[in-house]
Amino acid sequence: MDNQMAKNKLSPRRRVINLLVHALLAVLALIWVLPIVWIVLTSFRAEPGAYTKTFLPQGYTLNNYVKLLTDRNVLNFPRMFKNTLIISIFSCTISTFFVLSVAYSLSRMRFAFRKPYMNLAMILGLFPGFMTMVAQYFILKAMGLTEGAGIRIGLIVVYSACTGLGFQISKGFFDTIPKSIDEAAIMDGATQWQVFTRITLPLSKPIVIYTVMTAFMAPWVDFIFAKVLCRANASQFTVAIGLWNMLQKEYIYQWYTCFAAGAVLISIPIAALFLYMQKFYVEGMSGAVKG
User: Fold this and answer.
1) Which residues on neighbouring strands pair with residue 60, listed in sequence order?
2) Whether 95 contacts 163, CB under 8 Å
3) C-alpha gyration radius of the chain
């Protein structure tokens, strides 16, 4: 009742402003959704090639998905998908452990070189990661991780090794949890590991979910270093390299619509992971302890 009365009391000028704001938001939403709708429609397009005269396809078919998932001779997308999924799962698991462990240590513990390490990590974070790719490649080559199945291990090592430098956001969240909880648990006989795993992490579901999401997405969408390490080893290609190959001049006419289908398929794991973890994120936000 009160809301309805407040709406009735809005001045004509305020109503015009609200109308303009909503119209602007609707236009922005349309601009954001339009590329997604276009890529989905293109994935079902019957006409081959990259260019068409109309926005909407003239015909629809499932053959693009069938070809993408069944072709084993030209661009083996299922194998690329499997490679990327394996790399992403292992990298996500290791990276999440590294980030949360480093963040907890810097938030709760006091030791020598703690502040210099945080300052050094902040400085190193200012430089783009691809500046070290040449050095990383030759290190992995010396370890025999640039050929065959070793490429997967090399990518997992690279994606996981430096994640401990990205502790700032997690540390900031851990800082909001009162230290009195840790002290009470330690007085009851708990170890630091028990405090970390049984108290801090359950109270930090939002940042844990955020860390898992970012740790999974980084290797899932990476192209530059995967291309540097895989080179011509087609059996070790990731989905990013596969989609890039579909846009090469020798493949683009027959594979462009399959490229669109591949773009739709690779979004499914990310969407599924987000939808599955969203409930834990909401629960964590509603139950998190703030100091």
Assistant:
1) 45
2) yes
3) 25
What is the three-class DSSP state of 55? coil
Say whether 143 sits in a helix, a strand or coil.
coil
Question: Which amino acid, residue 48?
Answer: P
Q: How many CB atoms lie within 10 A of CB 102?
A: 19
pLDDT digits 0-9 by tens, 60-108: 889 999 999 998 877 889 999 999 999 999 999 999 999 999 999 888 8
CA distances in angstroms from 240 to 11, 44, 221, listed in the order given? 53, 20, 6
Q: C-alpha distances in angstroms, 145 versus 52, 160, 284?
A: 43, 15, 39
Q: Cα torsion at 83, 86, 89, 95 (round to 10°)?
A: -80
Give CA–CA dist 290/211, Å, rounded.
19
- Alpha carbon distance 161, 147 (integer Å): 20
pLDDT at 288: 46
Give the bridge partners for 282, in sequence order.
Answer: none
Q: Comparing C-alpha atoms, which of 207, 226, 241 is closest to residue 129? A: 226
DSSP state of 60: B
Does the model's pTM come out above 0.90? Answer: no
Q: Is 45 helix (H, G, I), strand (E, B) or coil?
A: strand
CB neighbours of 84 closer than 8 A, spacing ≥ 6? 219, 220, 238, 239, 240, 266
Length of the chain: 291
For residue 183, give Cα distances in angstroms to 2, 187, 188, 199. 48, 6, 9, 11
Nearest to 256 by CA among 31, 105, 57: 57
CB atoms within 10 A of CB 136: 19
> Residue 287's pLDDT is what?
45
